[in-house]
Amino acid sequence: MKITDENVSLLGNDKFCNKNEAINIAQKTNSSQIGWNLWEKMWTSVLKREDIQGIDALKYAKDLNKYHGTDIYSEILKRNDISWREAIEVLGDDNSLVIHEILDCKIDMPVFQALSYAIKFQPLNTLHDYIGLVLMRKDIKSLKAKRLLNLAERLNDETLWFNISLLDQVQKFMMKITTEKALFYLSKHVCGDVQNIILTRLDIHKNIALKHYKSANLPIYICISILSRPDISAKEAIYFAKKADNPVVLEAVMKREDVKEYLNLPNLIKEKA
User: Fold this and answer.
1) For position 269, what pLDDT does the model report?
2) Which of 120, 156, 172, 192 is deepest in the core (most CB within 10 A)?
């Protein structure tokens, strides 16, 4: 059988041929005959067959990688009948590229185990390829904020700080920490929501919040939150709102009751009516 783009998927159809026939055809077909891309597609079709056990398919994929340099095991890892333990058993845990594929495909791996592998294998210049994969998992919520923040402190990577700060448990934790810790986290590359939480905490002196307002390129909603602090006077709020580039900030400040009173706005409105 000559493999073509049109018939290659038939090797994965158990009504067309059994697994032994499919493997035999694939083994007799060289990449030089049909081209590298079609050759990889052929083996992928074969090794995704349901009548080939997942772990056996992964072993075939490993041998193909060893002797031909193909990395179709990344496709085979997506099979639901291969556990993360089996993947580690077959492929080993000493290759960073293999670990990346396992972290990407095997969400049955416990999240802390996945995070441990991610920390172990990422060189700093590819940090986000590994830890980023883990942080996107739904079960990342099972890890406590303090453990995640300790990780961020240890690795001290900007994108890691930002990604961790997006997590709900971390943002809730920011409401409970000491003033000193809050200021420390504020100095890191955290997301806007965490900046907002910290800069509106009343134990953080208003001058610190206003300093960030003046010097940092903050999102509009944070600017509004800062100028809504009860310890910032109406006069101060007006002063800083006038300096804002966006009129939305001034509009928000004008809604403050003490600002209306300071400007005598209720009387002006009444007179116009």
Assistant:
1) 45
2) 192
Tokens coding 68: 């031909």
Question: What are φ and ψ of residue 194, in 5° steps?
Answer: -70, -40
Report whether 227 contacts 241 (CB < 8 A).
yes
Compute CA 108 distance to the chain's CA centroid, rounded to the nearest angstrom.
17
Would you state the structure tokens that stand for residue 60, as one six-digit string?
A: 């075939």
Q: Is residue 245 part of a domain?
A: no
45 within some domain = yes
Query: Which segments in the chain show pLDDT lower than 50?
Result: 268-273
The CA distance from 103 to 93, in Å, is 11
Q: If we measure between CA atoms, which residue out of 130, 106, 98, 95 comes closest to residue 116?
A: 130
| Residue at 162 is within a domain | no
Sign of the dihedral through C-alpha 14, 16, 20, 23:
negative
Helix or strand run (H / E) with residue 54: helix 54-68
What's the pLDDT at 270? 45
The two three-digit tokens of residue 225, written as one number: 């939150």
- 91 vs 60: CA distance, rounded Å: 11
Look at the chain and report how many structural domains it folds into: 1
Pairwise CA distance, residues 234 & 257, whole Å: 9
How many CA atoms does the CB half-sphere of 73 hold within 13 Å? 29
Specify if 22 maps to a domain.
yes
- 66: containing domain: 1-82
Fill in the DSSP letter of residue 217: -
